[in-house]
Design brief:
By secondary structure, the chain is mainly alpha-helical. It contains twelve helices and four strands, in the order H-H-E-H-H-H-E-H-E-H-H-H-E-H-H-H. The chain has two domains: 106 residues, no CATH class; 76 residues, no CATH class. The longest helix has 16 residues. InterPro entries: AAA-ATPase-like_dom.
Length: 200
Amino acid sequence: SYITNWEKEYDIRPLETESIGFRFENILRVASEKSGRGVVVLIDEYDKPLLDVLEKDEELLDRNREILKAFYSVFKQTDAYLRFVFLTGVTKFSQISVFSGFNQPLDISMSEKYEALCGITEEELLSYFAEPIREMARSEDCSEKEMQQLLKQRYDGYHFGKTMKDVYNPFSLLNAFYNNDIRDYWFASGTPTYLIRLMN
């Protein structure tokens, strides 16, 4: 597990009786003390343990919720050791009630200040990815301009603020460049099954 790996990294020997929350708290404290700096915590899909069992197993859903509450409550207790915490997920914080034990997080999902944070802008695409665009255009036997349009059509269109600044899906775009092929990478990576159930 990640917790065990981090304990090894920082030479921490946990007791078998220690909870996952206590072990995480200890890792944050030791990491800060050893580095002399605040710890940055990045958690992708913070809500996945709940979404995976939603509408399937109510008992497991409740158990996972309690485990996450204990885990995330550590942030309040370790505030002095943290620089910042960044969580991503598909549900609103208030909808899943796992943060009652720590200061209410700030939802920046639709903040204009951060609207291009989780994507690749048009400017970035043209500045940093000119060579992969050229290679894809060659392999598809089209012009670079046509390839840019195709990439825009397939991977652009995400908006996270009132100004509606376009951002490209980085997962799909980078996979397209790596594979030199246009496909539905994001959908194929594992669309949450609960979304599909809700749409049916």
